[in-house]
Amino acid sequence: MVNMTTETLRYYDRIGLVHPSQTDKWTKYRYYTEKDIVRLNTIRALSCMEISLKEIKRLIDLNDIEEIVKFLEDALTRADKKLSELQEAKLRIIRAKEFYESKIVEKPEQNMFVRSLPKRTILLSDKLSQPTIDNLWDYHRHFYSQIGESRKEDFIFEDLAGVYSSGDTKRLFAVCKKFSQIDNLVELPEGKYLCAECSEDNYDNVLRSLIDAAKLKYSADVKFIVSLIVLTGILKWKYEIQILIQNYK
Length: 249
Description:
By secondary structure, this protein is of the alpha+beta class. It folds into 2 domains: 6-61, Multidrug-efflux Transporter Regulator, Chain: A, Domain 2 (Orthogonal Bundle), CATH 1.10.1660; 113-247, Alpha-Beta Barrel (Multidrug-efflux Transporter 1 Regulator Bmrr, Chain A). 40% of the residues lie in helices and 26% in strands. The chain contains 7 helices and 11 strands. Strands 3, 4, 5, 6, 7, 8, 9, 10 and 11 form a 9-stranded antiparallel beta sheet that branches. β1 and β2 (30-31) form a beta hairpin. The longest helix has 38 residues, at 65-102.
């Protein structure tokens, strides 16, 4: 009736929270009255709000109606907060599930390949230079914070993350679907890019090979390097390094 195990009922009996109204001396069966059932249901509801059994016992034993009302008001406030946190967590899980579902069909890992890419506008981070578990989680929040609340409506970002390197500059970036003029915007030209996939461990070796091939095979003047972050698991990633070898303009 109250969705509790017999062990839970025995435990409540041991700690003095709810005693059975009667125990059969021969069979040891416990018997509970309607009042006991109400008490058990109250305990179960309060436990769901993460109120300790010690607090629950104190509440149930109270004889001051005003204090009981105040306690329950506080409990409702905590319950509302918990529901809000759970709803936000559920939305994050849904977004993560949809994102990973979109990544199920992946291009098989290969060596160097050429990809034609459109013009892209990226916003460089003013602080972040290396991907980490912390900064990839809720990635766009960092860039919206950088833009400022007053200009937030001017920007929409693609569901991508990457690292832009040029000379001494190395910054994480977000790809803009909508933007207005602001510091740290960089335009990546439309053209053919020599690409290769790699892990964190072999990144440097693959990058050197890619730069050598871009210069020797395609006579490219390597002015910048784009390293897209390709998620392979829950905050596990590899890179797709891209080097411009033919500008369409």
